[in-house]
Amino acid sequence: MSNVAYSIVEPSTRTKSVAAALVILYALLTMVPLLWIVLTSAKSPPDSISYPPKVVFEPSMEGYCNLFTTRSRQTEEYIQSLPPAESTCEVIARSRNMVVAGSSNYLPRFINSLVIALGSTFVSVLFGTIAAYAFSRFKVPGKDDLLFFILSTRMMPPIAVAIPIFLMYRSLGLSDTWIGMIILYSAVNVSLAVWLMKGFIDEIPREYEEAALVDGYTRLQAFIKVVLPQAVTGIVATAIFCLIFSWNEYAFAVLLTSGTAQTAPPFIPIIIGEGGQDWPAVAAGTTLFLIPILIFTIFLRKHLLRGITFGAVRK
Amino acid sequence: MKDNLVGFAVKMAPAAVATRLKGLSDRALAWLFIAPTMFLLLAINIFPLIWTIYLSFTNYRSNRPNAEVSFIGLEHYQNILSDPDVWLAMQATAHFVFWTLLLQTLIGFTLAWLIDRRFRGHDLWTTVILVPMMLSPAVVGNFWVFIYQPQIGLFNYAVSFATGISPTAFEMLGSVQLAPWAIIIVDTWMWTPYVMLICLAGLRSIPTYIYEAAEVDGASKWRQFWRITLPMALPFIMLAVLFRGIENFKMFDMVNLLTNGGPGSTTEVASITLKREAFEKWRTGYSSAFAIILFVTVFGLANIYVKALNAVKNR
């Protein structure tokens, strides 16, 4: 309505094309590092460190193979005495005088990331939704202070919280466990969940539940059968935001996990090959790690603004 | 149709019925719904915070859990505030926060203004530009280590291509002069979209009729920008700056992976100092005091943020 076509303030065609050119230039530039990650993941290690940097190269599975396997160096005689290689990765390894010795830790770390992100998302969205409903619909004494308190927990530097959590988890036996990380990430995300869900629930007209109450529903029934179905979009958007935050989190993960519950972000940077960092493998690990987020970002497009401002700006 | 009927039923229901149905049980339900969130935050945020305050007055070291702990009062606080290294860390943090905010605001606002010219396909390109900010700062930041490699890195190659300087003549991460800028570049690449998105919401909130009136009154485009566009978008810009300010004040993951505070301590921002004290030197008491000082600072910023947020909302 406000942007009426043919308005006198409609930018001129020339302004539009200049704006388009600049924005597209920026967009393309900003994609270069990401494109470089994907390209590097498909290079062989020698190609990845060539000078000048190669844009055209022969694609190789070596990065992905090195990501998922561990290899050991063998003598040529030993390799020749082996039966023919069965897998692509074995062929590549043998061409470098190595044999595949086993699988790497990438898959377990990826699974840890998945379990911890899903678990903490479930907890924070559940807690956040019911708390947001209470804040939205009931007279809670000191409501504004409570909401501010919930938000302020998010302002703490993670390292500052990590010191006592580290001590607490050590004495409770929660260090480096799924459940410990799920509790921690839930606490980090619940503030976002409360604030976002409160915005979404505020937008659902009260009349629906009030009608349900008149029809003899209890408050709880009205919440479950009337409000929740209306809040599905909000719940999904909030859940995706919580998922992304947990998935991307690094500070707590690197300080509080080392083995069994370590997630992918602290693991990917320490993928090393012979003689330093194996960049194609790192790139492969990064690519696989980023793909879920890319898909989610496209889903979230409409709610991005709300999510990143804790619901302060709703468009 | 059905919705209308429900709404009608509510309006027709006697007020007394509605009041009775929203009686005491609502209050119980409200607390029941808020309790899990509060419990989680008390356990994972407040209890640790109190513990940190307690530790900050002691000489406790978490690598010697059995050593005797004694109270030393405000000694740590005095030491920190008079420690030149801490002031260096604060300067490094201020330098990082100042330049990232300046660059992100300038580029972000410009981009938002260009996108708001509504050229064809602007929605698609906006989504492309938004991608970096959704990715894991740790995982993507880590890959910039590769991009910044002298000789083989894409960044050095591009600079050399553009200026003719030898790609081995400078090391972005290894030189005292360049390392602070290396992290500023990555942070700006990653978070400019964030500022852009909020600025875009600000620009879109300005009604077209204001411009039409200005146009009719014969105000120049330049004057319109300074008298209408900028003042009306300002609360949004402030919101973005405060959000990024708080986040960058806490910055840990990207810096930890790109430079780990080096070379020397040129990029040692506050969170890195805190990590070194707490998890490398194991000076738990000292680092707890530092954590409290940082938290108080961030909390101050958070208060300003909430005021700004209300200013935006009440417009």
What report would you give on this structure?
The complex is a heterodimer of chains A (315) and B (315). Chain A contains 16 helices and four strands. By secondary structure, chain A is mainly alpha-helical. Chain A has two domains: 60 residues, no CATH class; 202 residues, Orthogonal Bundle (MetI-like fold), CATH 1.10.3720.10. In chain A, strand 3 and strand 4 form a beta hairpin. The longest helix of chain A is centred in the middle third of the chain and has 32 residues. Chain A is globular. The N terminus of chain B is likely disordered. Chain B is mainly alpha-helical and 315 residues long. The interface between A and B is large, with 116 and 116 residues.
Describe this structure in a few short sentences.
The complex is a heterodimer of chains A (315) and B (315). Chain A is mostly helical and 315 residues long. Chain A has helices at residues 13-41, 45-48, 62-68, 76-80, 88-95, 106-137, 143-152, 158-172, 178-202, 207-214, 219-230, 232-248, 251-256, 264-267, 279-300, 304-308, and strands spanning 69-73, 98-103, 272-273, 276-277.
